[in-house]
Design brief:
This protein has about 325 residues and is an alpha/beta fold. It has one domain: Alpha-Beta Barrel (TIM Barrel), CATH 3.20.20. Helix content is about 40%, strand content about 15%. It contains eleven helices and twelve strands. The strands form two sheets. The chain has an eight-stranded parallel barrel with strand order 1-4-5-8-9-10-11-12, surrounded by nine helices. The longest helix is centred in the middle third of the chain and has 18 residues, at about 145-165. The protein is globular. The termini are far apart. The structure holds ligand PBG. Ligand PBG binds next to helix 6. Ligand PBG binds near residues 129, 212, 281 and 282. Homooctamer. Pathway: Porphyrin-containing compound metabolism; protoporphyrin-IX biosynthesis; coproporphyrinogen-III from 5-aminolevulinate: step 1/4. It holds the Pfam family ALAD. This is Delta-aminolevulinic acid dehydratase.
Length: about 325
């Protein structure tokens, strides 16, 4: 008996989800290896790899090992590697002079990578915290993080990094006016082509905990970073910061952390249409890995799902500790 008059859905959206072939055809967002930037921790020594306990699968690496990681990145098709130095606590000072030393650990690592694997883009971090006796991103005077003096130090630091061969400078300090000062220093000193990816909307986040362990800053940090990093409750301010940094000469902007701030990422991308990145930070990596190691989540699947989410939100790329693992999966 026919059921002509039986109710049926006017639109069967499940039709296009029926097979992997159909799902592939209609997929709107595709993660690609060229979307990834791989953050690595650099340490002194030779042939050293010290696991970071709160970041399973991540180790601090001596320069020779970082060069090997850069080769691996190249072979996987990852376009960029981002360096964070682990500095001996005995070398940290209140004035942070080591930050602009041409031969500091980060600059030596940059040179070594650019010598061995020139096609990889090297990104460096412009902030004083690895070199600061008190763990802050800026110079501290009478208990205050002083802005303008810090900006001068950051410009010197950025120049030393550019001279070492860095392709992308990543000011992560959140001082006012640093992008303009760094851009001016680069122009005046023969580095007009060095790009700046501004950590424009960087929040005062508890998700940075494992990173601070990895770079040995946890013990050093006195107080918190709330007078310069953003309040997690704010969105409009993020747009003001991005606009300001673009005006001062940033080529690309970043939102950080990633997953809890995808609304900000989306807003930035749709408002400014500039290359926009997110940093899936150490705490995001740690929580996914911890759950995976407990068997509570499928590590590979949540990794790929989280990275796809960044792309779907409109981002051009992602800084992620998952970079090599995701790249291996993407390359099949
Ligand atoms: C420091 C810096 C931090 C991160 C990148 N650069 C930590 C901080 O601001 O305290 C965090 C990265 C991560 O958590 O993975 N300028």
């Amino acid at each position: 008996m026919s059921r002509t008059f039986a109710p049926f859905p006017a639109t069967r959206l499940r039709r296009i989800r029926r097979t992997e072939a159909l799902r592939g055809l209609v997929r709107e967002t595709q993660l690609s290896v060229t979307d990834l930037i791989w953050p690595v921790f650099v340490m002194e020594g030779e042939n050293e790899a010290h696991p970071v306990p709160s970041m399973p699968g991540v180790s601090r690496l001596s320069i020779d090992r970082v060069v090997a990681a850069a080769r691996e990145a190249r072979d996987l098709g990852i376009p960029a590697i981002c360096l964070f130095p682990y500095v001996d606590p005995a070398l940290k000072t209140e004035a942070c002079e080591l930050a602009w030393d041409r031969d500091n650990l980060s600059n030596r690592a940059t040179r070594a990578i650019k010598d061995a694997v020139p096609e990889i883009a090297v990104m460096t971090d412009v902030a004083l915290d690895p070199y600061n006796a008190n763990g802050h991103d800026g110079i501290v005077k009478d208990g205050e993080i002083v802005n303008d003096e810090t900006v001068e130090a950051l410009a010197r630091m950025a120049l030393a990094q550019a001279e070492a061969g860095a392709d992308i400078l990543g000011p992560s300090d959140m001082m006012d006016g640093r992008i303009g000062a760094i851009r001016a220093a680069l122009e005046a000193n023969g580095h007009p082509n060095v790009t700046i990816m501004s950590y424009a909307a960087k929040y005062a986040s508890a998700f940075y905990g494992p990173f601070r362990d990895a770079v040995g800053a946890s013990g050093a940090l006195k107080g918190d970073k709330k007078t310069y990093q953003m309040d997690p409750g704010n969105a409009g301010e993020a747009l003001r910061l991005v606009e300001r940094d673009l005006t001062e000469g940033a080529d690309m902007v970043m939102v950080k952390p990633g997953m809890p701030y995808l609304d900000i990422a989306r807003a930035v991308k749709s408002e400014f249409r500039v290359p926009t990145f997110a940093y899936q930070v150490s705490g995001e990596y740690a929580m996914l890995m911890a759950a995976a190691e407990n068997g509570w989540l499928d590590g590979e699947k949540v990794m790929m799902e989280s990275l796809t989410g960044f792309k779907r939100a409109g981002l051009d790329g992602i800084l992620t500790y998952f970079a090599p693992r995701a790249a291996r999966l993407l390359n099949g």
